[in-house]
Structures are given as C-alpha cells and as structure tokens.
Amino acid sequence: MEVWTGRIDPEPDSLRWHQAIRPLDVAEGPGVALIGFACDEGVRRNQGRPGAAAAPAAIRKALASLAWHRERPAYDAGDVVCDDGDLEGAQARLATEVAGLLAAGHLPVVLGGGHEVAYGSWRGLAAHLANHGAQAPRIGIVNFDAHFDLRDPAHVHSSGTPFAQIAEDCATRGWPFRYACLGVSRASNTRALFRRAAELDVLVCEDREITPARLDHIGEMLNAFVAACDHVHLTIDLDVLPASEGPGVSAPAARGVPLALLEPLVERVRDSGKLRLADLAELNPEFDIDNWTARVAARLIHQLTLNG
Ligand SMILES: N=CN[C@@H](CCC(=O)O)C(=O)O
Ligand SMILES: [Mn+2]
Ligand SMILES: [Mn+2]
Asked: What positions does the entry give for Mn(2+) 1 binding (predicted)?
C-alpha cells in the first residue's frame, strides 16, 4: 500500500484515490478491486520490448492523486508476479485471484503486464462462471488494441496469443467465442491475422475508421455487440493510442485512436451493466515520457469506475 501517497487537500470533500483505497483484506462490501499482473514474459516471448512488469506500480502511482468521485469502495488486491519466466503459472495464479474477487462481488480491474494478462483474467472469469453453473455463457471480449493478438498459440504462448488461446478454450468448453477488436492497424497485422479474425467472426474496427464523424455509428455497433453477450470482459491495450499520447508501450502506434475517441467507447461498455472484468495492458514505464501513458491508464480506470 506504500505506493498510495499523494497530494492532500485541507478542504472537506477533497479526497483522492490514495486516501480512499483500502487493502483487500479490510474489504467491507463489494467494490472495485485493483490487482496487478507484474509480468512481461509474454512480451519477451513475442519479440517485444520488456518493461511492462513495472507497470502495475506506475499505474497505481498515477491513479493515487486523481480525485475520488466514487460512492462504493475500491480495494488494492496486490500483485501477481511472474517469476523465472513461468508465464503459464502466473496466468493460472491470476485466474485464481480474479475468480475469488468475482465471487466476493468485486469488479476486478487488472493492471498488466503485457497483453498476456488477458488470458489469465479471462480464465478467472470463466472459472467463476463455471463455478456458478453457467452452461455456455456468452462472454463478449471488447479489446481496444492496434493488434488482434490472435497469433497461433501452437508456436509460443505470448502477449500476441491471448485471444487465440481464449478461442481454443471456448472451443474445448463448447462456449461461444465473441471478440470485438477496435483500433486495429492494418499495417501492423499480417494477412494471416486478418484471416484468423474473419474465421473467428471477430468484430473488427480499424484505427482509421474511428473518427469523430463515425463515433456514434461505431458506438452503436459496440452496443449491438454487447447486447448479444451476457458478460463483458473489457481489455485495453495502451498501444491503441497514438504514440504521441501513449509512448510508454512496447509497440507504439503511428496512427492510433486518440483518448478523446477511445474514452466515450469505453464508457459505453461501462454503462452496459454487463462489465464483469477489465484489464489495462502493455504499459512499459521504461519508454514512457513524464508518465503520460501511465496517466492515460489511470484516467481510464477513473472513468471506468466512476459510477460504481
Ligand atoms: N501484444 C502485442 N502484440 C503485437 C506486438 C507487435 C509488435 O511488437 O510489433 C503483436 O503480437 O502483433
Ligand atoms: Mn497491441
Ligand atoms: Mn494487445
């Protein structure tokens, strides 16, 4: 909890996150539960630039001084750490933690970590739903990302494979795989990846399609996708931002989707009533500039959890 420090205002009703957030072990009723996934092994295996293991601390630091506007509590559930390259072990531990948070009625917000975080998070949600008797739950994954992360897991399990791994799990379980990927850069995804996305019936929205003029239309598409799901797993890869807004990632985007367009779409997911789980992935503090990217991550968490 030491990272939760920051500005203290003398006026009444001037709380900030660092003054309101509590350790999970004092949980008093359902709230938002932050859990870190200190891991960049998936990025390393995916030939990216490691450094995302330090992201959970950087995001907490950026969130600490933001103003507190929530009614319900927020908890810090600590970190799951990936040791000695044991990515699969770390994902399994994250899944157990996420399932526990869901069982306690919390909204888990997972602080990645490379995007390999999403496979661990999703497995936690899947375990929770299976434990509660769900037969074939329609889990909609809404991923804001420049990349599909649908690489063939037969080669290596990495930050480039989480949604292909989830698709395989869904096929094994006989569950539907529902995946929307918004912000995709055609220049950064091969034809093979576009083909796999088509085969898996992914809802695809390219970066260049997300413009102010088309924002309402895209928002309606997103609403329709969510309406056809029972539960939503929101996952935000910060490399969806333009490099000028999100420099602190492994693979910065030449074009990207600006925060001003991203945020209203994220808020639609928040307001759907179906959001069960959220991840923030791929922050790499080593490449950040004055914590710009960490600040965006913190703001997104703030917006996501505003009404809870
Ligand atoms: N999570 C990362 N995904 C990207 C990385 C691309 C890159 O490093 O250039 C991917 O695998 O496509
Ligand atoms: Mn990406
Ligand atoms: Mn990604």
From this structure: 115, 145, 149, 237
